[in-house]
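User: Structure please.
Assistant: Input sequence and predicted structure:
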Amino acid sequence: MFKGLQPILYGGREVWPLVEGGKGVSATNHASSGAWAAAGGIGTVSAVNADSYDPEGRIVPQVYHALTRRERHEELVQYAIDGAVAQIEKAHDIAGGKGAININVLWEMGGAQRVLEGVLERTKGLVTGVTCGAGMPYKLSEIAAAHGVYYLPIISSARAFRALWKRAYSKAAEWLAAVVYEDPWLAGGHNGLSNAEDPRKPQDPYPRVAELRATMREGGIPDSVPIVMAGGVWRLDEWDNWIDNPELGQIVFQFGTRPLLTQESPIPPDWKARLMNLEEGEILLHRFSPTGFYSSAVRNPFLRWLEARSERQIAYTPHEVGDHAFQLDVGIGTKKNYWVTRGDLQHAREWYGAGFTNAMKTPDDTLVFVTPEDEKIIRKDQADCMGCLSQCAFSSWADNEKNSTGRLADPRSFCIQKTLQDIAHGGPVEQNLMFAGHAAFRFKSDPFYSNGFVPTVKQLVDRILTGA
């Protein structure tokens, strides 16, 4: 047992202060979260478009039959509720009364509030708490309190928590189980970097968490309400000065990346194999996500494809203005109202000659040059949108009366639902978005994983409890 590490009281029972991070579309399911709880920790079922099952136990493919986005969105909400309920029930059975089961919800997912309420209504007594981030989930406390479950907001700054506390959470303080500090530079998946923070200059999490604790104390929140450190956590002996630290109060640790590489982890074998061969620096903090948030993923050919697409980009004006004195003569068919600089005209002609013959408009008055094949894929993915996000830059869908962001669909982004479903269910790992935390390169050098060893969740938790 690592020095100073003690169980905490959560949901009426003692559990280890170790949380399994909930990793989006089908990357954390009942098998991994139930096993984590059975090992005495807090397992987290992802309630983001989770898998449901037919009577024979086979995964139900999430196929959309409706013709309109609004109708497909209704199908998506039902899939999401049914899937999360199925995962929670199975996880609860596996846990066998040990540990605790949380669910994780992306507040910016389409229909998030309806999905959360629908899931909690059907899983009474099975869910201990709800973690929720990606946005400002003001209604989280109200929904959790109404269903008698705890809530654990995911934030990346004391300022964000202060706003949530003052506006909403202080009214349901008794249901606040913990505050999750997710490091915006190190965590996998979507990150909470603000416009004032430099993505290239990571900040030490200690002073940021100390500030968060000070903010919680200002609100009258006792130190017994833990802060969950998430993002970049690999082994506990690297965090020994955080444990029993009076400045920080009670600290719990969340592991998001390490549980991906376990026997129970539902990700496909190719994904697991790729994790074991990552080099330092292969995780990219990027802004291609249609959510508008920064996110961290393996810089594989899929991400390099998106990077290259954005690099083949030029600004235009609809009239001759200043340096924009040259009419674009490639990639635009018969249209002649695109005025560009001399240098960009040369770039466009070079891209055209290399096969990137189609120019697509972006919301920022630029054109990106793509192949005809890529344009067909982009257009089809945009047309097939099922409203998986509350606002989607890629398709212009929004959860509002007009079902529109009011902005042009952005071809520099991608359909996140399509790629996450594909990679989670056996699609090619190099041609899909592969989320991972920035410490994922450590699988290759950590002796625990030598000779290709893949532990069970119980073996991983036992290893973590030693500090290593």
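The chain has 13 helices and 18 strands.
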